[in-house]
Specification:
Distance between the termini: 81 Å
Largest sheet: 5 strands, antiparallel
CATH architecture of the largest domain: 2-Layer Sandwich
Strand content: 25-35%
Enzyme class: transferase
Strand order of the largest sheet: 5-4-8-7-6
InterPro entries: HATPase_C_sf, HATPase_dom, His_kinase_dom, HisK_dim/P_dom, HisK_dim/P_sf, PAC, PAS, PAS-assoc_C
Organism: Pelotomaculum isophthalicicum JI
Number of domains: 4
CATH class of the largest domain: Alpha Beta
EC number: 2.7.13.3
Order of helices and strands: HHEEEHEEHHHEEEHHEHEEHEEHEE
Helix content: 40-55%
Keywords: Kinase, Phosphoprotein, Transferase, Two-component regulatory system
Radius of gyration: 39 Å
Number of strands: 15
CATH topology of the largest domain: Heat Shock Protein 90
Shape: elongated
Length: 424
């Protein structure tokens, strides 16, 4: 092939680089010519080729006299390389942008790659994860850990939930999918996909708690009035008998029975507050105004029990509220806070705006909530008080639900804070 014909067949996009290398070789700047580029084939297709050449004779002035070379079709190789490149790009895209944490490890637990999500949820850099290995992220005190390990060793894969830990020691529940595979060199490796399901677990607990509340509420709506009616009759007859002369020696017993009936009636009233289908009228109101109206009553409760009160209200917008129910919610949380503290303790009532929420908070200086009942807070009839009904917090959760609000809390040995979050 004549050199002029070869030049015409070079792809326009490749031609500048090819001709530059070609001319440099002709001028003696390189000892050998080698290029990969596209060349027009007789079929009209562009083929990838590799051409190699060398000047083998020059005149006394260094001018090239003769050159030999070869052209090899590498189109298939180029297609394979392109397919591999695209595959690697897709892998990198999925690896780096996955909503799940992805770890690549060897069967012994050594990590050699971690994606950004893995670094985020474990609060470690990729280097830290690679240096520490799998052991640094697994909570080995989880009772199911050894069963998982046994299953993984037996089958080479695992799919399920496991307790994991972040760099600061905080634990969380992760949904894991892991399997062994062979890399391109035939070595066994492990892929581990992890999803932080903390929020999902909390949502499931909240739904279970609401289901219990709804069940109790349906029971309350169905039988509450039927119980109250005969109780009213019994109470009336006890009052009548109490007034009779020949029953005067039993007066203290009648008083005791009447007081117990009144206490039962109070419980039924709270019981009915749990009813899911209870209709309440909501209208725009400011929660600060409700707190101010209740303050004399709250202050009196504090003085009786020798507790201090601090009000820290911030300017917040009006939200849709039912004043009667919100008064009950505030009093329940405040009185719970008083009962959690020893004399001299301080209770702080706060309101503030947090994003698109108005937050009402009650903070006590008690000893905190015991860990064995943390997951049961708000469950009807759960109480740690000697004479409690276990309905106060359940009623608060029910009221919050009717206001499209949520209740959460923070607790420690220094006290507990309940937060009621209302959507604006």
């Amino acid at each position: 092939m004549h050199i002029s014909m070869w030049k015409k067949m070079i792809h326009p996009d490749d031609k500048p680089a090819v001709m530059k290398a070609f001319n440099e070789h002709l001028e003696g700047h390189t000892t050998r010519l080698e290029n990969e580029h596209r060349l027009l084939a007789g079929s009209g297709e562009w083929k990838w080729i590799i051409d190699r050449g060398e000047v083998i004779a020059r005149d006394n002035y260094g001018k090239p006299l003769r050159m030999v070379g070869t052209i090899v079709d590498i189109t298939e190789r180029k297609k394979a390389e392109e397919t591999l490149r695209e595959s690697e790009e897709r892998y990198c895209l999925l690896f780096n942008n996955s909503i799940d944490a992805v770890l690549l490890a060897d069967p012994g637990g050594g990590v050699y790659a971690a994606n950004p999500e893995a670094c985020r949820i474990f609060e470690r850099t990729e280097d830290e994860l690679c240096q520490s290995g799998i052991d640094c992220i697994i909570d080995t005190t989880d009772p199911s850990y050894y069963a998982v390990l046994k299953e993984w060793n037996r089958t080479g894969k695992f799919k399920g939930e496991l307790t994991l830990k972040r760099k600061n020691g905080a634990i969380f529940t992760g949904e894991i999918s892991s399997a062994i595979f062979k890399d391109k060199n035939g070595h066994y490796k492990t892929s581990i996909f992890i999803r932080d399901i903390t929020e999902r677990k909390q949502f499931e607990k909240e739904m279970a708690r609401l289901d219990r509340l709804n069940l109790v509420g349906e029971m309350a709506a169905g039988i509450g009035h039927e119980i109250r009616n005969p109780m009213t009759t019994v109470r009336g007859f006890l009052q009548m008998l109490e007034g009779k002369q020949d029953c005067s020696k039993y007066k203290k017993y009648f008083n005791l029975m009447i007081s117990e009936l009144d206490r039962t009636n109070t419980i039924i009233t709270e019981f009915l507050s749990l009813a899911k289908n209870k209709t309440v009228e909501l209208k725009p109101q400011n929660i600060n105004h409700i707190i101010q109206a209740l303050f004399p009553l709250i202050e009196a409760d504090g003085m009786i029990t020798d507790k201090n009160i601090e009000i820290e209200t911030s300017e917040v917008p009006d939200i849709a509220l039912n004043e009667k129910e919100i008064r009950q919610l505030i009093l329940n949380l405040v009185r719970n806070g008083f009962e959690a503290m020893s004399p001299g303790g301080k209770l702080t009532i706060k309101t503030f705006r947090d994003g698109d929420e108005v937050v009402f908070a009650v903070q006590d200086q008690g000893g905190g909530i015991k860990t064995d009942i943390l997951d049961k807070i708000g469950t009807p009839f759960l109480t740690t008080k000697d004479y409690g009904t276990g309905l106060g917090l359940a009623v608060c959760f029910s009221i919050a639900s009717r206001h499209n609000a949520t209740i959460n809390f923070e607790t420690s040995l220094c006290g507990t804070t309940f937060f009621v979050r209302f959507k604006m």
